[in-house]
Structures are given as C-alpha cells and as structure tokens.
Design goal:
single chain, mainly alpha, 7 helices, 80% helix
Length: 117
C-alpha cells in the first residue's frame, strides 16, 4: 500500500511539473502578480484589526448583559418594594385585609391623634 501511495505521489508531481513547464509567459505573469497581491494583503495591518472583531463583539455583548441585569441608581429603591409586594402575595396572610388597607391606615392615623398627652 505504501508503494502505491509513493508511486501515485511521483506520478502526480511529474504531471504537475509538466503542466507548469507548458504555461506561457502571460499565464506565469498573471499567477506571479496574483501571488504578490495575496502576500501584500496578508501583511496589511487591516487584517490584524479584523482578527479582533469577534472578541470586541463578545465583550460588547457581555457589557450590555451586565448593564441590563444590574439595577441602575434610580432602580435601587424600587426593588425592595417589589420584593415586599411579592412576599405579600405569596405569604399566608389574608388577602382580604390588604383589600381594606386604606381603612386600616385611617384607623392608624386616628389612633396616633389620640395620644396627645
């Protein structure tokens, strides 16, 4: 099997060399110019910048995710009341008492007025 692979490689190289030897000057010149353009583009600094584009995209996505999940300065006071509301709704206290919360707050205000000492 190894001998067949070696023979195939030799035959392929011989065919390739023969095809290169048969190329005319115009084709060789076109291939050479293309090779030089490719080498210049590979050396350009723009290519180095493009390498960082995916990393910058990931960093921006992480930053946006952090900004969305963390509360801002105005939202810090809102969060405890929202948690308290959720605790009231999930608690075992009677909801009927909360329906007449205004009545109880009036009683509380009246009760504070009676302590005039």
């Amino acid at each position: 099997m190894k001998n067949l692979d070696e023979q195939f490689a030799k035959d392929a190289k011989a065919l390739f060399d023969a095809s290169v030897d048969e190329l005319d000057a115009a084709s060789l010149s076109t291939l050479n110019q293309g090779r030089h353009r490719a080498l210049e583009e590979a050396r350009s600094p723009r290519r180095d910048l493009l390498r960082w584009v995916p990393a910058a995209g990931v960093a921006a996505a992480v930053l946006i995710g952090v900004m969305v999940t963390l509360p801002g300065p105005g939202n810090i006071d809102v969060m405890p009341s929202a948690v308290a509301d959720l605790e009231i709704l999930l608690g075992e206290d009677s909801i009927e008492m909360f329906e007449e919360l205004e009545f109880y707050s009036v009683l509380d205000v009246m009760d504070e007025g009676d302590d005039v000492g």
